[in-house]
Protein backbone atom coordinates (compact mmCIF):
# COMPACT_ATOMS: atom_id res chain seq x y z
CA UNK A 1 0.00 0.00 0.00
CA UNK A 2 1.34 3.43 -0.89
CA UNK A 3 2.44 5.72 1.92
CA UNK A 4 0.36 8.84 2.60
CA UNK A 5 2.12 12.04 1.57
CA UNK A 6 5.54 11.80 3.25
CA UNK A 7 6.22 14.62 5.70
CA UNK A 8 9.89 15.49 5.39
CA UNK A 9 11.81 17.91 7.61
CA UNK A 10 15.04 19.17 6.09
CA UNK A 11 17.20 20.61 8.86
CA UNK A 12 19.72 23.07 7.41
CA UNK A 13 19.12 25.21 4.35
CA UNK A 14 22.74 25.26 3.17
CA UNK A 15 23.68 23.92 -0.29
CA UNK A 16 23.07 20.29 0.66
CA UNK A 17 19.80 20.89 2.54
CA UNK A 18 18.39 23.11 -0.20
CA UNK A 19 19.18 20.53 -2.89
CA UNK A 20 17.74 17.71 -0.74
CA UNK A 21 14.53 19.72 -0.34
CA UNK A 22 14.29 20.10 -4.14
CA UNK A 23 14.65 16.35 -4.62
CA UNK A 24 12.04 15.62 -1.90
CA UNK A 25 9.62 18.19 -3.33
CA UNK A 26 9.95 16.66 -6.79
CA UNK A 27 8.67 13.37 -5.34
CA UNK A 28 5.53 15.06 -4.01
CA UNK A 29 6.63 14.97 -0.36
CA UNK A 30 5.43 17.63 2.04
CA UNK A 31 8.69 19.45 2.76
CA UNK A 32 9.62 21.86 5.56
CA UNK A 33 13.12 23.35 5.53
CA UNK A 34 14.38 24.77 8.84
CA UNK A 35 17.51 26.86 9.24
CA UNK A 36 18.81 28.55 12.36
CA UNK A 37 19.98 31.56 10.37
CA UNK A 38 17.96 34.29 8.75
CA UNK A 39 17.22 33.96 5.07
CA UNK A 40 20.56 34.13 3.25
CA UNK A 41 18.85 36.17 0.52
CA UNK A 42 18.37 38.98 3.00
CA UNK A 43 21.54 41.03 2.34
CA UNK A 44 22.10 41.82 5.99
CA UNK A 45 22.70 38.18 6.86
CA UNK A 46 26.35 37.31 7.44
CA UNK A 47 27.16 33.81 6.30
CA UNK A 48 28.08 31.42 9.06
CA UNK A 49 31.86 31.43 9.70
CA UNK A 50 32.67 33.58 6.71
CA UNK A 51 33.16 37.34 6.31
CA UNK A 52 31.16 37.44 3.06
CA UNK A 53 30.97 34.15 1.25
CA UNK A 54 33.65 31.77 0.17
CA UNK A 55 34.38 30.62 -3.32
CA UNK A 56 34.36 26.91 -3.82
CA UNK A 57 35.47 24.56 -6.55
CA UNK A 58 32.34 23.00 -8.05
CA UNK A 59 33.15 19.69 -9.72
CA UNK A 60 31.24 17.18 -11.83
CA UNK A 61 29.94 15.46 -8.68
CA UNK A 62 28.03 18.57 -7.68
CA UNK A 63 27.00 19.41 -11.25
CA UNK A 64 25.50 15.93 -11.79
CA UNK A 65 23.56 16.14 -8.55
CA UNK A 66 22.01 19.45 -9.55
CA UNK A 67 21.30 18.21 -13.09
CA UNK A 68 19.39 15.20 -11.74
CA UNK A 69 17.29 17.30 -9.36
CA UNK A 70 14.79 17.84 -12.18
CA UNK A 71 14.46 21.51 -11.15
CA UNK A 72 13.81 23.57 -14.30
CA UNK A 73 16.70 25.85 -15.18
CA UNK A 74 18.55 25.22 -11.91
CA UNK A 75 21.82 24.03 -13.41
CA UNK A 76 21.85 26.75 -16.07
CA UNK A 77 21.40 29.51 -13.50
CA UNK A 78 24.12 28.06 -11.25
CA UNK A 79 26.61 27.54 -14.08
CA UNK A 80 26.00 31.03 -15.47
CA UNK A 81 27.72 32.45 -12.39
CA UNK A 82 30.78 30.20 -12.40
CA UNK A 83 34.28 30.59 -13.79
CA UNK A 84 36.12 27.64 -15.37
CA UNK A 85 39.43 26.73 -13.69
CA UNK A 86 41.45 24.54 -16.06
CA UNK A 87 44.24 23.78 -13.63
CA UNK A 88 46.43 24.94 -10.81
CA UNK A 89 48.74 27.91 -11.15
CA UNK A 90 51.70 27.29 -8.90
CA UNK A 91 53.39 30.51 -7.85
CA UNK A 92 57.01 30.78 -6.75
CA UNK A 93 60.33 32.46 -7.27
CA UNK A 94 63.36 31.43 -9.31
CA UNK A 95 66.96 31.44 -8.11
CA UNK A 96 67.31 35.09 -9.18
CA UNK A 97 64.29 36.14 -7.14
CA UNK A 98 62.00 36.67 -10.15
CA UNK A 99 58.36 35.63 -9.75
CA UNK A 100 57.37 32.39 -11.49
CA UNK A 101 54.01 30.89 -12.46
CA UNK A 102 53.55 27.29 -13.55
CA UNK A 103 50.23 26.18 -15.00
CA UNK A 104 49.42 22.53 -14.20
CA UNK A 105 46.31 21.49 -16.13
CA UNK A 106 43.79 19.21 -14.40
CA UNK A 107 42.99 17.20 -17.49
CA UNK A 108 44.62 16.46 -20.85
CA UNK A 109 41.19 16.70 -22.50
CA UNK A 110 40.56 20.20 -21.17
CA UNK A 111 37.97 19.27 -18.55
CA UNK A 112 37.83 21.70 -15.67
CA UNK A 113 36.44 22.62 -12.28
CA UNK A 114 34.37 25.74 -11.77
CA UNK A 115 34.75 28.49 -9.23
CA UNK A 116 31.39 29.20 -7.61
CA UNK A 117 30.33 31.55 -4.86
CA UNK A 118 28.85 29.40 -2.06
CA UNK A 119 26.35 32.11 -1.11
CA UNK A 120 25.20 32.65 -4.71
CA UNK A 121 24.78 28.90 -5.24
CA UNK A 122 22.80 28.60 -2.01
CA UNK A 123 20.56 31.55 -2.98
CA UNK A 124 19.83 30.03 -6.39
CA UNK A 125 18.80 26.75 -4.76
CA UNK A 126 16.55 28.58 -2.27
CA UNK A 127 15.00 30.62 -5.11
CA UNK A 128 14.05 27.37 -6.86
CA UNK A 129 12.41 26.10 -3.66
CA UNK A 130 10.55 29.33 -2.97
CA UNK A 131 7.65 28.95 -5.36
CA UNK A 132 6.97 25.24 -4.83
CA UNK A 133 3.51 24.56 -3.34
CA UNK A 134 4.69 21.62 -1.20
CA UNK A 135 7.73 23.41 0.31
CA UNK A 136 7.78 25.66 3.35
CA UNK A 137 11.01 27.57 4.13
CA UNK A 138 11.31 28.40 7.83
CA UNK A 139 14.31 30.50 8.88
CA UNK A 140 15.55 31.51 12.33
CA UNK A 141 14.57 28.15 13.79
CA UNK A 142 17.16 25.99 15.50
CA UNK A 143 16.65 22.27 15.98
CA UNK A 144 17.00 21.58 19.70
CA UNK A 145 15.70 18.02 19.97
CA UNK A 146 14.26 15.09 18.05
CA UNK A 147 12.57 11.84 19.00
CA UNK A 148 13.20 9.49 16.09
CA UNK A 149 10.75 6.86 17.37
CA UNK A 150 7.81 9.15 18.13
CA UNK A 151 8.83 11.23 15.08
CA UNK A 152 8.69 14.61 16.72
CA UNK A 153 11.22 17.42 16.52
CA UNK A 154 11.59 20.62 18.49
CA UNK A 155 12.82 23.96 17.21
CA UNK A 156 13.72 27.13 19.09
CA UNK A 157 12.62 30.34 17.41
CA UNK A 158 15.58 32.72 17.24
CA UNK A 159 16.22 36.47 17.17
CA UNK A 160 13.52 39.12 16.96
CA UNK A 161 10.81 36.49 16.36
CA UNK A 162 11.16 35.69 20.06
CA UNK A 163 9.49 38.94 21.10
CA UNK A 164 6.18 37.99 19.47
CA UNK A 165 3.35 36.22 21.31
CA UNK A 166 4.07 32.95 19.53
CA UNK A 167 5.71 30.20 21.62
CA UNK A 168 9.54 30.14 21.69
CA UNK A 169 9.64 26.42 21.05
CA UNK A 170 7.71 24.67 18.31
CA UNK A 171 7.00 20.94 18.09
CA UNK A 172 6.79 19.45 14.61
CA UNK A 173 5.91 15.89 13.64
CA UNK A 174 7.54 14.16 10.70
CA UNK A 175 7.95 10.93 8.77
CA UNK A 176 11.61 11.55 7.98
CA UNK A 177 14.29 14.09 8.89
CA UNK A 178 17.07 14.87 6.44
CA UNK A 179 19.85 16.24 8.65
CA UNK A 180 21.82 18.70 6.52
CA UNK A 181 22.88 20.95 9.39
CA UNK A 182 26.63 20.99 8.86
CA UNK A 183 29.68 19.79 10.75
CA UNK A 184 28.24 20.49 14.21
CA UNK A 185 24.99 18.77 13.30
CA UNK A 186 22.28 18.75 15.91
CA UNK A 187 20.38 16.05 13.98
CA UNK A 188 23.45 13.79 14.20
CA UNK A 189 23.77 14.49 17.94
CA UNK A 190 20.18 13.51 18.64
CA UNK A 191 20.21 10.56 16.23
CA UNK A 192 23.18 9.11 18.13
CA UNK A 193 20.86 8.49 21.09
CA UNK A 194 18.87 6.05 18.94
CA UNK A 195 21.45 4.32 16.79
CA UNK A 196 24.80 2.76 17.71
CA UNK A 197 26.72 5.24 15.63
CA UNK A 198 30.51 5.04 15.40
CA UNK A 199 31.82 8.55 15.45
CA UNK A 200 35.27 10.02 14.91
CA UNK A 201 36.16 13.71 14.93
CA UNK A 202 39.56 15.31 14.59
CA UNK A 203 40.96 18.78 14.15
CA UNK A 204 44.16 19.25 12.19
CA UNK A 205 46.76 21.67 13.48
CA UNK A 206 46.02 24.11 10.67
CA UNK A 207 43.89 27.24 10.81
CA UNK A 208 42.55 29.19 7.87
CA UNK A 209 41.91 32.86 7.22
CA UNK A 210 40.22 34.47 4.26
CA UNK A 211 41.76 37.31 2.18
CA UNK A 212 40.59 39.15 -0.92
CA UNK A 213 42.56 40.17 -4.00
CA UNK A 214 40.78 43.18 -5.51
CA UNK A 215 40.11 43.61 -9.26
CA UNK A 216 42.95 45.00 -11.40
CA UNK A 217 43.24 48.75 -11.33
CA UNK A 218 44.18 50.12 -14.75
CA UNK A 219 46.41 52.77 -13.14
CA UNK A 220 48.47 50.17 -11.28
CA UNK A 221 50.13 47.56 -13.44
CA UNK A 222 52.72 46.51 -10.86
CA UNK A 223 50.36 44.39 -8.75
CA UNK A 224 49.45 41.93 -11.49
CA UNK A 225 51.03 38.72 -12.66
CA UNK A 226 52.02 37.72 -16.18
CA UNK A 227 48.82 35.69 -16.56
CA UNK A 228 46.50 38.53 -15.50
CA UNK A 229 43.68 39.35 -17.92
CA UNK A 230 40.14 40.70 -18.24
CA UNK A 231 40.41 42.93 -15.17
CA UNK A 232 41.68 40.15 -12.89
CA UNK A 233 45.06 40.64 -11.18
CA UNK A 234 46.15 37.12 -12.05
CA UNK A 235 44.77 34.39 -14.32
CA UNK A 236 41.00 33.99 -13.80
CA UNK A 237 41.06 30.43 -15.12
CA UNK A 238 43.23 28.78 -12.51
CA UNK A 239 43.12 27.79 -8.89
CA UNK A 240 46.21 29.63 -7.64
CA UNK A 241 48.53 28.02 -5.12
CA UNK A 242 51.51 29.40 -3.28
CA UNK A 243 52.90 26.22 -1.68
CA UNK A 244 55.48 26.01 1.12
CA UNK A 245 56.51 23.02 3.25
CA UNK A 246 54.35 24.19 6.19
CA UNK A 247 51.80 26.69 4.90
CA UNK A 248 49.75 27.32 1.82
CA UNK A 249 48.01 30.29 0.27
CA UNK A 250 45.36 29.75 -2.41
CA UNK A 251 43.21 32.05 -4.54
CA UNK A 252 39.97 31.26 -6.40
CA UNK A 253 38.41 33.69 -8.92
CA UNK A 254 35.04 35.40 -8.49
CA UNK A 255 32.81 36.84 -11.17
CA UNK A 256 33.31 40.35 -9.74
CA UNK A 257 36.99 40.00 -10.79
CA UNK A 258 38.22 39.60 -7.22
CA UNK A 259 39.83 36.46 -5.83
CA UNK A 260 38.77 34.86 -2.57
CA UNK A 261 41.98 33.65 -0.97
CA UNK A 262 42.75 31.42 1.95
CA UNK A 263 45.84 31.21 4.12
CA UNK A 264 46.31 27.76 5.65
CA UNK A 265 49.01 27.60 8.33
CA UNK A 266 49.78 25.87 11.64
CA UNK A 267 48.13 27.42 14.70
CA UNK A 268 51.58 28.44 15.99
CA UNK A 269 52.13 30.57 12.86
CA UNK A 270 48.77 32.27 13.39
CA UNK A 271 49.68 32.91 17.04
CA UNK A 272 53.08 34.34 16.05
CA UNK A 273 51.59 36.63 13.38
CA UNK A 274 48.79 37.73 15.70
CA UNK A 275 51.33 38.65 18.36
CA UNK A 276 53.55 40.49 15.83
CA UNK A 277 51.24 41.91 13.17
CA UNK A 278 54.08 44.05 11.81
CA UNK A 279 55.66 40.82 10.53
CA UNK A 280 52.62 39.74 8.47
CA UNK A 281 53.79 41.44 5.28
CA UNK A 282 57.32 40.06 5.48
CA UNK A 283 55.92 36.59 6.22
CA UNK A 284 53.84 36.83 3.04
CA UNK A 285 56.73 38.18 0.98
CA UNK A 286 59.01 35.36 2.09
CA UNK A 287 56.47 32.52 1.96
CA UNK A 288 54.15 33.46 -0.91
CA UNK A 289 56.10 35.49 -3.49
CA UNK A 290 53.91 38.04 -5.24
CA UNK A 291 50.79 37.45 -3.12
CA UNK A 292 51.24 40.51 -0.89
CA UNK A 293 51.32 42.81 -3.93
CA UNK A 294 48.21 41.18 -5.37
CA UNK A 295 46.29 41.73 -2.13
CA UNK A 296 47.50 45.29 -1.63
CA UNK A 297 47.93 47.61 1.33
CA UNK A 298 45.26 46.14 3.61
CA UNK A 299 46.94 42.73 3.86
CA UNK A 300 47.63 43.20 7.58
CA UNK A 301 44.11 44.48 8.29
CA UNK A 302 42.57 41.52 6.50
CA UNK A 303 44.63 39.11 8.62
CA UNK A 304 43.64 40.92 11.80
CA UNK A 305 39.95 41.43 11.00
CA UNK A 306 38.99 38.16 9.37
CA UNK A 307 38.39 35.16 11.63
CA UNK A 308 41.03 32.47 12.11
CA UNK A 309 39.08 29.25 11.82
CA UNK A 310 39.78 25.57 12.55
CA UNK A 311 39.48 22.63 10.18
CA UNK A 312 37.50 19.62 11.31
CA UNK A 313 37.27 16.13 9.88
CA UNK A 314 34.33 13.86 10.79
CA UNK A 315 33.59 10.23 10.00
CA UNK A 316 30.59 8.35 11.29
CA UNK A 317 28.63 5.19 10.57
CA UNK A 318 25.81 4.51 9.88
CA UNK A 319 24.34 7.70 8.44
CA UNK A 320 20.70 6.79 9.17
CA UNK A 321 18.21 5.48 11.74
CA UNK A 322 15.41 3.14 10.63
CA UNK A 323 12.99 4.96 8.29
CA UNK A 324 12.97 8.23 10.18
CA UNK A 325 16.35 9.96 9.86
CA UNK A 326 19.44 10.36 7.73
CA UNK A 327 22.36 12.79 7.78
CA UNK A 328 23.90 14.24 4.63
CA UNK A 329 26.72 16.60 3.66
CA UNK A 330 29.03 17.98 6.35
CA UNK A 331 26.68 16.59 9.01
CA UNK A 332 27.77 13.10 7.90
CA UNK A 333 31.31 13.67 6.63
CA UNK A 334 32.84 17.11 7.22
CA UNK A 335 36.30 17.00 5.65
CA UNK A 336 39.35 19.23 5.36
CA UNK A 337 38.96 21.37 2.22
CA UNK A 338 42.11 20.32 0.35
CA UNK A 339 40.40 18.06 -2.14
CA UNK A 340 37.72 20.66 -2.94
CA UNK A 341 35.02 18.01 -2.59
CA UNK A 342 33.21 18.69 0.71
CA UNK A 343 30.19 20.39 -0.78
CA UNK A 344 30.40 18.36 -3.99
CA UNK A 345 30.28 15.11 -2.02
CA UNK A 346 27.34 16.48 0.00
CA UNK A 347 25.40 17.29 -3.17
CA UNK A 348 26.23 13.82 -4.45
CA UNK A 349 24.83 12.33 -1.20
CA UNK A 350 21.46 13.78 -2.20
CA UNK A 351 21.54 12.22 -5.66
CA UNK A 352 22.56 8.81 -4.29
CA UNK A 353 20.01 8.92 -1.45
CA UNK A 354 17.08 9.63 -3.74
CA UNK A 355 18.19 6.97 -6.21
CA UNK A 356 17.69 4.52 -3.31
CA UNK A 357 14.28 5.99 -2.43
CA UNK A 358 13.28 5.65 -6.08
CA UNK A 359 14.18 1.98 -6.17
CA UNK A 360 12.21 1.06 -3.03
CA UNK A 361 8.48 1.13 -2.26
CA UNK A 362 7.08 4.40 -0.88
CA UNK A 363 6.16 2.85 2.47
CA UNK A 364 7.88 3.20 5.85
CA UNK A 365 9.39 -0.27 5.36
CA UNK A 366 10.54 0.69 1.87
CA UNK A 367 12.04 3.89 3.21
CA UNK A 368 13.89 1.99 5.95
CA UNK A 369 15.32 -0.40 3.34
CA UNK A 370 16.32 2.54 1.14
CA UNK A 371 18.15 4.22 4.05
CA UNK A 372 19.89 0.97 4.96
CA UNK A 373 21.06 0.58 1.35
CA UNK A 374 22.13 4.21 1.30
CA UNK A 375 24.32 3.92 4.42
CA UNK A 376 25.82 0.69 3.11
CA UNK A 377 26.82 2.37 -0.14
CA UNK A 378 27.69 5.82 1.11
CA UNK A 379 29.63 5.34 4.36
CA UNK A 380 32.71 3.75 2.71
CA UNK A 381 32.64 6.39 -0.04
CA UNK A 382 32.44 9.19 2.52
CA UNK A 383 35.36 7.74 4.50
CA UNK A 384 37.43 7.43 1.33
CA UNK A 385 36.85 10.98 0.15
CA UNK A 386 37.62 12.18 3.65
CA UNK A 387 40.98 10.36 3.54
CA UNK A 388 41.70 11.70 0.05
CA UNK A 389 41.04 15.24 1.30
CA UNK A 390 43.52 14.77 4.12
CA UNK A 391 46.07 13.26 1.71
CA UNK A 392 45.69 16.12 -0.73
CA UNK A 393 46.90 18.61 1.87
CA UNK A 394 50.39 17.24 1.35
CA UNK A 395 49.89 17.22 -2.44
CA UNK A 396 48.83 20.87 -2.50
CA UNK A 397 51.31 22.47 -0.14
CA UNK A 398 54.36 20.30 -0.79
CA UNK A 399 53.66 17.70 -3.47
CA UNK A 400 53.17 20.21 -6.28
CA UNK A 401 56.81 21.17 -5.76
CA UNK A 402 58.43 17.83 -4.93
CA UNK A 403 60.92 16.15 -7.21
CA UNK A 404 58.82 13.01 -7.15
CA UNK A 405 55.77 14.97 -8.30
CA UNK A 406 57.71 16.72 -11.06
CA UNK A 407 59.20 13.41 -12.18
CA UNK A 408 55.75 11.79 -12.26
CA UNK A 409 54.43 14.71 -14.30
CA UNK A 410 57.27 14.33 -16.81
CA UNK A 411 56.53 10.59 -17.14
CA UNK A 412 52.82 11.32 -17.63
CA UNK A 413 53.59 13.88 -20.31
CA UNK A 414 55.93 11.55 -22.16
P1 LIG B 1 26.66 23.89 5.70
O1 LIG B 1 27.11 24.66 4.53
O2 LIG B 1 27.47 23.98 6.96
O3 LIG B 1 25.14 24.33 6.01
C1 LIG B 1 24.51 23.85 7.18
C2 LIG B 1 23.25 24.67 7.42
O4 LIG B 1 22.59 24.16 8.58
C3 LIG B 1 23.55 26.14 7.70
O5 LIG B 1 22.72 26.93 6.89
C4 LIG B 1 23.22 26.30 9.20
O6 LIG B 1 22.71 27.58 9.50
C5 LIG B 1 22.17 25.22 9.41
N1 LIG B 1 22.11 24.70 10.78
C6 LIG B 1 23.13 24.31 11.58
N2 LIG B 1 22.68 23.86 12.76
C7 LIG B 1 21.32 23.96 12.71
C8 LIG B 1 20.28 23.67 13.65
N3 LIG B 1 20.54 23.15 14.87
N4 LIG B 1 19.00 23.89 13.28
C9 LIG B 1 18.71 24.42 12.05
N5 LIG B 1 19.66 24.72 11.13
C10 LIG B 1 20.95 24.49 11.46
N6 LIG B 1 33.69 22.16 -0.70
C11 LIG B 1 33.78 21.93 -2.04
O7 LIG B 1 33.03 21.10 -2.57
N7 LIG B 1 34.68 22.61 -2.81
C12 LIG B 1 35.55 23.53 -2.28
O8 LIG B 1 36.35 24.11 -3.01
C13 LIG B 1 35.49 23.77 -0.87
N8 LIG B 1 36.31 24.68 -0.30
C14 LIG B 1 36.22 24.93 1.03
C15 LIG B 1 37.09 25.85 1.62
C16 LIG B 1 37.05 26.11 2.96
C17 LIG B 1 38.01 27.09 3.57
C18 LIG B 1 36.09 25.43 3.77
C19 LIG B 1 36.02 25.69 5.26
C20 LIG B 1 35.22 24.51 3.21
C21 LIG B 1 35.27 24.24 1.83
N9 LIG B 1 34.42 23.31 1.25
C22 LIG B 1 34.52 23.06 -0.10
C23 LIG B 1 33.44 22.55 2.03
C24 LIG B 1 32.05 23.17 1.95
O9 LIG B 1 32.07 24.51 2.40
C25 LIG B 1 31.10 22.34 2.80
O10 LIG B 1 31.29 20.97 2.53
C26 LIG B 1 29.65 22.69 2.50
O11 LIG B 1 29.39 24.05 2.84
C27 LIG B 1 28.73 21.78 3.31
O12 LIG B 1 27.40 22.08 2.99
P2 LIG B 1 26.24 21.61 3.98
O13 LIG B 1 24.98 22.15 3.36
O14 LIG B 1 26.37 20.16 4.28
O15 LIG B 1 26.55 22.35 5.37
UniProtKB/TrEMBL annotation:
One Gene Ontology term of the molecular function aspect: kynurenine 3-monooxygenase activity
Keyword field contains Oxidoreductase: yes
InterPro entries per record: FAD-bd (IPR002938), FAD/NAD-bd_sf (IPR036188), Kynurenine_monooxygenase (IPR027545)
EC number: 1.14.13.9
The keyword Calcium is annotated on this UniProt entry: no
UniProt xrefs under PANTHER family: KYNURENINE 3-MONOOXYGENASE
Annotated family: Belongs to the aromatic-ring hydroxylase family. KMO subfamily.
Protein's UniProt name: Kynurenine 3-monooxygenase
Gene source species: Extremus antarcticus
Organism ancestry: Eukaryota, Fungi, Dikarya, Ascomycota, Pezizomycotina
